[in-house]
Specification:
With 177 residues, this protein is mainly alpha-helical. The chain has two domains: 83 residues, Winged helix-like DNA-binding domain superfamily/Winged helix DNA-binding domain (Arc Repressor Mutant, subunit A, Orthogonal Bundle); 72 residues. The chain contains seven helices and three strands, in the order αβααββαααα. Helix 2 packs across helix 3 and helix 6 runs antiparallel to helix 7. It is elongated. The relative contact order is 0.10.
Length: 177
């Protein structure tokens, strides 16, 4: 999760304390991705160490204790601008358990590959139906929850198409020992 960039983005709106950032993150993402205060304070410490933010003063927190507030530095603003302008790309080396499982099953004669694909397809379609029902209850706005559900629906549709494609491929020749 890009906590570093998320905190920088919120600090672009003005100075905030760690607890204010945690609360604001929760509000802006409708608590879809929980962020604990430890993650926030650790990340703020690294951002300050790296010269991307600086202490901007102290406020009295909700617990009546003093709390530091932070603001972006020039370097932090530049990094944030770069993040906004750069597309997000998934790493090509992600280990996908389903791909691993299917590729191993395809080369193991004792595994019913078609049965495995059918079970996976049924589970994928069940998840897809559940998320589609959920999506009908959500506002048609760009909230974090709506975006997450829509992304997951499209991922599941892609997975179902991939399973169909795998089934259509020919069986690999067994490896010679």
């Amino acid at each position: 999760m890009p906590i570093k960039h998320s905190l920088l983005a919120m600090l672009a709106d003005g100075r905030h304390s760690a607890s204010q950032l945690q609360q604001q993150f929760s509000e802006r993402t409708q608590a879809v991705w929980p962020l604990n205060i430890g993650q926030v304070t650790q990340t703020l410490g690294r951002l300050e160490r790296d010269g991307l933010i600086e202490t901007a003063g102290t406020i009295t927190g909700a617990n009546n204790r003093p709390a530091d507030t932070y603001r972006l530095t020039t370097a932090g603003t530049e990094l944030l601008d770069d993040w906004w302008s750069r597309p997000v790309q998934r790493p090509p080396t992600d280990r996908d358990e389903l791909v691993i499982k299917v590729s191993l099953a395809a080369q193991n004669r004792s595994v019913d590959l078609i049965g495995l694909l059918d079970r996976q397809r049924r589970a994928t379609i069940a998840q897809l139906r559940e998320l589609t029902r959920l999506s009908r209850t959500l506002d048609h706005t760009r909230t974090a929850e709506r975006l997450q559900v829509e992304r997951r629906i499209l991922d599941l549709e892609s997975e179902a198409r991939w399973l169909d494609r795998v089934e259509a491929l020919s069986t690999p020749r067994p490896q010679e020992s």
